[in-house]
Amino acid sequence: MTKMQTLEWAFFAIAALLTLGGAVATVAARRPIRGAMGLLTTILGICGCYLLLHAEFLATIQLIVYAGAVVILFIFVVMLLGSSAESPQDDRAKVSRYVGAGVFLACVLGAGALMTSVTAERSKALPAVAATYGTIEKIGQELFTEKVVPFELTGALLLVAVVGALAVGRGKQADPTLASTSDESNPAEDRPAGEEA
Amino acid sequence: MTVPISMFLVLAAALFATGAMGFLLRRNLLVLLMSIELMLNAVNLTLVAFNRIHPANHAGQILAFFVIAIAAAEAAVGLAIVLAFFRLRGSVRSDEATALKN
Known about the structure:
The complex is a heterodimer. Chain A is mainly alpha-helical. Chain A has 3 domains: 7-86, Four Helix Bundle (Hemerythrin (Met), subunit A) (Up-down Bundle); 95-132; 147-179. Chain A has helices spanning 3-28, 32-52, 56-81, 94-119, 136-143, 148-170, 176-185, 187-196. In chain A, helix 1 (3-28) runs antiparallel to helix 2 (32-52) and helix 2 packs antiparallel against helix 3. Chain A is globular, with a radius of gyration of 25 Å. Chain A starts with a helix and ends with a helix. Chain B has helices spanning 5-25, 29-53, 59-89. Classes of the chains: A mainly alpha, B mainly alpha. The interface between A and B is large, with 89 and 73 residues.
C-alpha cells in the first residue's frame, strides 16, 4: 500500500466517521440545537465523500446550500421556538414504533449485505476519469444543454416554495387584508382612531 | 482511487437507515425534518457513487444537484409549516397534529 492509498483510506475513514457520528447525534439529540450541529457534521462528512468521488462542484454546492442555508434555517427556527423546541419523549404507541423501526432496520441491513456481495467484484476495477470529470465547466455544459428543462423547472419550483413558505409562515395575525376587512366591518373602532388623528 | 465504491454505498445505506430510524422513532417535528435531510443526503451519496462507476456523463451528479435544490425548498416549506403548527398548538410534537383526526 503506497502512501497515497493510505491517505485516501484515512480520509475516507474520517469522512465516514463524521457522517455516521453526526447522523446518530442528529437522531438521538434531546435538544434540537444539538441535532442541527449533528446535521452539520454529517454534511461535512458527505462533502469529504464527494471529494473522494471526484465531485468537486457538488462538494462546494453541498457546503454552500446545506451548511450555509439549510442548517442555518434550522438553527433560526430552533432559536425562534426557544425552550419549547424541546419535547419530552412519550411512551404512546411505543411498541408499534419500535417494531416498525426494527423491521425497517433488518430490511436495510439485508439489502446492504446483498448490495455489498453484488458490487464487491465489480468495484475492483474502477474506470479512470478524465481530469475534467466533476468540474464546474463539464457539469455546467451538461446542465445547460441536455438538462436545461429540468433546470428551469427547478427554478420554478424554488419560486413556488418561496411563495408557499411566505404564505404559510406569515400566519393570520400579519395578514393585512384580514386586518383591513375587520376594520371596515366594525366602524365603531375606527372612529376614536380618527378623532385622535 | 483505492476505496471501493461498495464502501460508499454501505455508508449511504447506513446513513439512510439512521435517518429513517430517526423519522420513525422521534416525535419532535424539527428532528423529523432533520432526519428527512439525512435520508436525502444518503440518496445523494448513492447517486454520486454510481456516477463514479459510469463516468461517461454526469447524470448522477446533476440529479444529486437537483435533489439538493429540492431539499432546500423542502426545508424552507417544512420549517414554515412547523412554525405555523407551533403558533396553532404551542408545541412541536407530532402527536399534537390531530386537527384532521378528531
